[in-house]
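## Example record

The block below lists the input lines for one assembly entry, exactly as stored, with component labels intact.
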Amino acid sequence: MITKNVASNFRLGQAPIYRSIRLIKHIDYTLLFAILCLCSFGLLVIYSTTHVEVMDAGSLSYVKRQLIFIIAGILLCFLVAIIDYHEIEKFAVPIYLLAIISLAYVILFGRTTGGARRWIEIAGFDFQPSEFAKIALICFLAYFLSRQKEKLSYALYFGLPFMLTGIPMLMIFRQPDLGSSMVFLAILLCMIFVAGFKWKHIIIMFLISMASFPLLWSFLKEYQKNRLILFINPSLDPLGAGYNVIQSKVAIGSGGLFGQGLFSGIQSQLKFLPAQHTDFVFSVIGEEMGFFGVVILLLLYIFVLWKGIKIAQEAPDFLGTFLATGVIAFLFFHIFINIGMAMGLMPATGLPLSFISYGGTFMISNFIGIGILFSVHLRSIFV
Amino acid sequence: MFNQKSSKITPDLIKNRLNDLFIFIIICFVILLVNLWYLQVIKGQDYEQRAINNCIRSLVEEAPRGEIYDRNGKLLITNRPAVNFSVIPAEIDDYHSLAFELSSIIPLEESYIIEKFQQLKKRPFQAQTIKRDIEKEQIVAIEEQKYKFKGTLLTVQPERKYLYQELAAHVLGYVNEISEEELRDSGYSHLSGGDIVGKSGIEKYYDNYLRGEKGNKEVEVDALGREILTLKSREPVAGNDIHLTIDSDLQQYIQNIMLGKKGAVIVSDPKTGKILAMVSQPSFDPNLFTKQISTEQWENIAQSKENLLCNRTIQGIYPPGSIFKLITAIAALEEGIVDLNDSIYCPGYYKLGGLTFKCWKETGHGNQTFIEAISNSCNVFFYTMGQKLGIDKLNHYARMFGLGEETGIDLPGELKGLVPSQEWKTSTFNQVWYPGDTVNLSIGQGYLLTTPFQIHNMLCIIANEGLVYRPFNVEKIVSQSGELIRKYEPEIIREIDISTETFRVVKEGMQKVIEEGTGWNARIEEVTVAGKTGTAQNPQGENHAWFVGFAPFQNPEICVTVFIEHGGDGSQSAATIAGNIIQSYFKKQYDHKVQSEKL
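Predicted structure tokens for the full assembly:
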């Protein structure tokens, strides 16, 4: 591991514009390419599931909008890559506080869809603060873990991250958004694990978190309780929420080795699948592209995550390592829980699939995450 | 245990931890892949079969619409089970042969069926109706040749039943499939093609209350179309029942009298605005619309004939003729241009400039006081009044009584009619308003057009001496569980600023109309009637006959308006019918009284 070299910035060049160009030249384009492949997967599937409605709603609008999100995401990704990630030290606390405030705002004034308050409207755009909060948490935890170690007792150094993650987590839990609050816990666990905490302690804290579950249970809305119960025993109710999972499994299963072909998945084209372009997008991929298509998809994801691990290991300092770790955890849990959900391995918590599911805030937060990876990567090149 | 300083954390430890993390990630992915292999490759065939063969059908269960009762709780509209022929587009291999087979059983054009298929394809797995309410023999024929009708099914759905066919058809309205334009209307945004909605009358105006909520069912079916498993079901919720203010006996009585005539009759309670009967003749049988001959076809038939679907009470516009003299009379009194003791001489004509306007009595009425002029409906008297008042005043008073705008009755499609003004004439014909136009207007001729219901509304205002009640047909709306959803109370929507004295005088004149004037045909023994006749000239042919009246004179309980299209002299047919209606009403009241006293 290379320790931080203050002189590194001077070597990069003189005027900011030249520095930026030089940085952009050295971005890891194989990683970017893999991500664009994933995005293309997404665009294809969104087109496939929405093109039937051309007459009704204008299906291109979904594809078009997703394309706009992707382009916006890439631009932001480059911007974040150019900025030195050490700037985060200045902004970690304000960003964290801003995330808390926006979550509070959602609880008070947010727009309700499907029984949950998740959205706020900014300048005509619907915006999900919980996605932004995930990135904010990554930055904040990375800053905390890399900077506070020497200043605090071990108990505080170990206990505070749990408390500071707990606050936004509970706020999201109240929305209610069970899936996203689980992502918070996942990010925290991955980061403190990489930060070198003892196995024993991590497991104890994890158990304490789980032990507090009965308390949290009383916060849950009826439909969430049902979802969790159904996950434990789906045969209880093949009519209601279990229906989604059955349909999704039939869709994935009927894909076989090579899939039914784009635009011809029986389940997907006939709208048996719920939330096809968002939460259950993987089922459509499974049905229309088959096992081979899915393997390619998973390999792309593994490649992206492996690149992330590499970047974390080669980072110039702890801050960079922890940032990269957080991003990896964020991407990985979305992927794993979403795909697991589509196959009936996980409860249907409604987490979107990274780079593929339709949705603006999520796509952009994914790209910001990648931007952070690039930023860390670039500082490890220009020592 | 937490008090040791974590000095052991080294870059190498972190590197190892990252490796561990990656191994964990790989293990998770392997779990996913193994599961995928199991789902897609090992079980893939099964699932594919399940997706193809064990199709899931999505069936809609229509909600029964609310029932409609008259004011005495007599059931007028209910639902009956009907068999619909539906298709599931995704399960049909050959549209053309199916269309061919079907057209041999059900009298529908092959091309029409194919066109219908094309529309239904948008929702391939949804069972959608091609033909509603098929006949018994057709059901048998289809069942016998079931093998030819793969991907189709017969479903039993509630269908509207109008128990008394033509009774109050225009008030009740009819239902049919939602049209393309209606689908684009935001009021129907939660509906989809094929849904049944009210198309006119109460059925349309109160559609949201009557409609109920569709149920649906997702069922797994085997290759033969038998249901294996219900995956999802939501029971339909029946619509709410409506109780009308209409008295169906009175309505029936009037429709019998009016049989063979064209026209409109309205009976209502002036003290509440409740409508007791609303007749538009000729009528139609709303049951016909459930036999889906396609709406367009039916509407063409109905319109080409005698404009059956037009509710003449609110959608027919006619010159009101002498009925309008009531407005002229009120205006004259209010403006103080007439003295009750003075009289005007009627020689049988009225000269204005170079023009001569005739009185209906060619020999003239001689000297006429105000009351006599109303009683005899003397044109010359009212020409003179109109001329003194001028167009602006006449227009003002006509509008005061609600002419030229909707009355606000709870029925859709009400027309406004036309009250002419100087500005209107200039902008429409680019002509100035002539004094002769005022003369014509003063006796309800010329450009003036009103619906029979507007005239009725005006009558109620006079009977009420200025209080304007909201006219309404619906007393209350009750849910299936008996819960009162809405109750409509009498409501005064405005009060007209005209002196009671004026109303008294005009009403006195109206009583004289019946006693010794043009309305003597409406005179009955039981009760004192007050009224006014009208005979409206019109360019379409024979004069329209009008009669408006209320009874009892002292304390009006009902207002009656009778209008007969090309019915000739209002003092004859219209007045006689009105007399009969009033008589029948009070006889029934009397019988009720006797009966309840016996009890």
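The longest strand of chain B covers residues 75-87. Chain B has two domains: 56-244, 250-287+294-595.
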